[in-house]
Amino acid sequence: MQILMDEWNIKPPSWVSADPCDGWEGIKCTNSRITALVLADMGLKGQLPTDIELNLSFNKGLTGQLRASIGKLTKLVHLNLVGCSFFGPIPDAIGSLTKLSYLSLKNNSFSGPIPPSIGNLANLTFIDLSDNKLQGSIPVSNGTTLGLDKLLKARHFHFGNNQLSGPIPPRLFSSTMAMIHLIFDRNNLSGSIPSTVGLVQTLLAVHLSNNMLTGPMPNLTGMNSLNYVDLSNNTFAVSEVPTWFSTLKLLTTLMMENTGLQGEVPRALFGFGNLETVVLRNNLLSGLLDVGNSSNQLQLIDLQRNFITELAPSKEGSNYTLILVNNPICEGSQTNNYCIVSPTNAPNEMSPTLSNCTAVACPSGQVSSPNCKCASPYRGTLVFIFVSFSNLGNFSYYRELEKAIMKSCQSFNLPVDSVSLGRPSWGSSFHLELVIEVFPSGDQVRFNQTGASAIASVLSNQTLEGRPIFFGPYSPAGSNKGLIIGASIGGSVLLLLIVLVGFYALYQKRRGDSPSRGSILMTGVSNVSGPQLKGARLFSFEELKKYTNGFSEENDIGSGGYGQVYRGTLPMGQTVAIKRAKRESMQGAPEFKAEVELLSRVHHKNLVSLVGFCLDQGEQMLVYEYVQNGDLLDSLLGKSGIRLDWMRRLKVALGAAKGLAYLHEHANPTIIHRDIKSNNILLDKDLEAKVADFGLSKSMADSGKDYVTTQVKGTMGYLDPEYYMTQQLTEKSDVYSFGVVMLELITARRPIERGKYIVRVVQSAMDKSKDLYNLHEVLDPAIDLENDQLKGLEMFVNLAMLCVDELRAKRPSMGAVVKEIENIIQISATNWNAGANSAATSASYEDVSREVSKDLYSVLDYSVAVQGRR
Question: Which residues bind ATP (predicted)?
Answer without folding.
Answer: 579
